[in-house]
Amino acid sequence: MKQWLKIGLLLAPGLGLILIFIGSVVYIAIAQSFGYYNLSGESGFSLEHWSKMFDRLSYTRAIGYSLYIGVASAFLAVAFAYPLAIWLRRPFAGSLFISAVLKAPLLVHGLVAAFLYINIISYNGILNQLMQALGFWDGPRRLQNDNGAIGVLILQTWKNMPFALLLLAGAVQAIGDDLLDAAADLGAGPFDRFRRIIAPLAVSATQAALVIIFVGALADFSFQVIAGPVNKQSLSQLMVFFKGYGRWNDAAVIAVTLMGLGITGSGILALFSRFVMRGGRLS
Amino acid sequence: MNTVSVQNVSMRFGDFTAVNDVSFTVAKGEFVTLLGPSGCGKTTLLNMVSGFLQPSSGKIEIGGNDVTFVPPERRDTAMCFQSYALFPHLSVAENLQFGLKQKKMLPADRKRRLDDVAEKLDLVAQLDKLPNQLSGGQQQRVALGRALTMRPSVVLFDEPLSNLDAKLRESVRLEIRKIQADYNLAAIYVTHDQGEALAMSDRILIMRSGQIEQSGTPTDIYNFPKSSFVADFIGNANILDATIIKEESRNSWLVSTEIGEFLVKSDTAPVAKQLKICWRPENAQHGGAELNSIEARVTHRAFQGNYTDLFIEINGVAQRVQWREGRLEDLTNLSMHIRPEDFTFLEAIT
Ligand SMILES: Nc1ncnc2c1ncn2[C@@H]1O[C@H](COP(=O)(O)OP(=O)(O)OP(=O)(O)O)[C@@H](O)[C@H]1O
Ligand SMILES: [Mg+2]
Question: How high is the pLDDT of residue A90?
């Protein structure tokens, strides 16, 4: 009993603060989505905000679009990071420098990166000029705010790949040379070594990378605003839009949607990646 | 036909030469042991045969094909690792079948091999466990089994018994030889346990600082070491500096040493006038004789069960003998002799 009290007291300052701040924000968002804390009208329980929101095409579209950005960014970042992590597994001349350069995007803020990116691809930007100079394109092309959201995905991948690399490199480096030698000795070529040894042993790091990147990209705002397609809205964009009109309860519905999608999506991603990387088993 | 042929192979790590111009062959069904002190290059040599390391120079053939640049997954070898290298996420059964799955062997055949090896290595009760739930000795046997299930044409062992207790070591030793003989595998076995090498090998290669110092059958190596390094490494040896006085008769030489003059009988002539010679402690004969008699003072004794190690001094030079005669408690002086054929000529003194 005394022990518990001690532990409780020791944890209180940190955990208490987190619980109070996060808890209250989550509580208010959920309460607002059900009609409470209405800043511009009558407060009280109602499902109206949810039911009306579900009828809006912009809402369902935004869900689809945000999920697409979240999932695609997570997989792209991890897919690019894996070969690099394996390549940099064992130190060689210059490997430290290469991995430092690869991690540089972590130090550049997303907004700055987005700004630089649209600069490069703008109608009169370097890329257009280069392609014309090389004779690939006859005239300048419009690349900015493309409808497929390729710009957003490039930025998300660029920004998140180093983070995935950081996680995966740690996991991959922890796998001893002798394990990979043993697998090779028993007939496993490079791909089978990845499939049967590296992937199963790096599952946790992969899950962490996928989930964290997914949650971040799901709620993307800045890349979408600067480089995203003009005919599509992300959930965050929609949330900010409602808030801009003082419609806090509608904004709260989207906020809760984002949280819900974040949690369930993460769970599904984690299970899926475990299943695939363990060769079709969950244990 | 040789299954493995290592030709003038060297391995350099920067300025350091770990293996220096080594050549040897292993025939089908032959059991060859690499024996040498820690750091002499045994593991490095095995790693080149299995393909984890590419030699800095030289050539390696397996089954008559040049495999010097063939990656390990395409060599018909299987290695039992010094560090075990068990896959931590796979059960013992899955570890044992890893290579068989890689070969796409049918499940029924796989099962048969698994049961067979698990039975032979006493792992039946461990099949569902993960490696970290096993004792050191059990892990070592899984590593052994994982290589043996492959039944490759060449099987490589890197100190596979170092973690087993004496009893288990003996039985696993027999199992290894049996499996190796049953499937007629060429085996290269690394150890620094001389008893193991003598007991198991068809042929022993003694390695020293990256080179092969001597190779031969266990009895050859034991009875006719070519250098004091080999004499001392295999068994115990009393090594003396000697000067040849004259050739007494055919194959007999009179030599002088710090502990007296002796007649030495040898099929091979001494390599120099000044050289090292040795005699084995167990070859000390009881009592004086016409030839090669020695009077010694006993300084220590150590009872070993079926014999006693006596540490003796002759003219102030320390030597040791193994004595099998009864009561030794108050033995202070020893009268003994060494037969001329029990001396061996070693390398020249430079
Ligand atoms: N990758 C490497 N880089 C540099 N030096 C190495 C490397 N691998 C081995 N060596 C050196 O080569 C020498 C031989 O090593 P090796 O592992 O072959 O010894 P060993 O005979 O197997 O010894 P032990 O009986 O202790 O296992 C050692 O001096 C070691 O330090
Ligand atoms: Mg070794």
Answer: 85
Q: How far apart are CA A73 and CA A58, in angstroms?
A: 22
For chains A and B, what is the number of CB pairs under 8 angstroms? 60
Domain with B270, as residue range(s), is: 236-348
pLDDT in tens, A222-236: 999 988 898 899 999
Main-chain dihedrals φ then ψ at residue B79, nearest 5 degrees? -115, 140
Whose structure tokens read 């993460």?
A266
Q: Is B305 found in the same domain as B157? A: no
Residue identifier of the C-alpha nearest atom 9 of ligand 1: B44
Query: Bridge partners of A271?
Result: none
CATH architecture, domain defined by A57-277: Orthogonal Bundle (1.10)
Give the Å distances, CA to CA, from B303 to A282, B236, B287, B314: 60, 16, 20, 21
**Nearest residue in B to A277, CA atom:** B89
Mean pLDDT, residues A126-150 taken together = 87
**Can you give the CATH number for the domain in which B9 is found?**
3.40.50.300
- Which tokens in the block code for residue B113? 């091999």
Average pLDDT, chain A: 90
Instruction: Please name which of A213, A133, A129 lies closest in space to residue A168, comparing C-alpha atoms.
Output: A213
User: Does B145 share its domain with B260?
Assistant: no
Say how far apart CA A77 and CA A217 lie, in whole Å: 11
Contacts of A252 (CB under 8 A, 6+ apart): A28, A29, A30, A31, A32, A33, A49
Domain C-terminal end among B197, B226, B255? B226
Q: What residue of A is the nearest CA neighbor of B74?
A: A187
pLDDT digits (tens, 9 = 90+) for A1-14: 788 889 888 888 88
Other CB atoms within 10 A of residue B218 CB = 18
Does B244 lie in the same domain as B212? no
The response to whether residue B303 sits with its C-beta less than 6 Å from ligand 1 reads no
pLDDT of residue A283: 58
Interchain pair A181, B85: CB under 8 A: yes
Q: Tens digit of pLDDT for each residue in B221-265?
A: 999 999 999 999 998 899 999 999 999 889 999 999 999 999 999
Q: At CA B242, angle to CA B240 and CA B247, rounded to 5?
A: 135
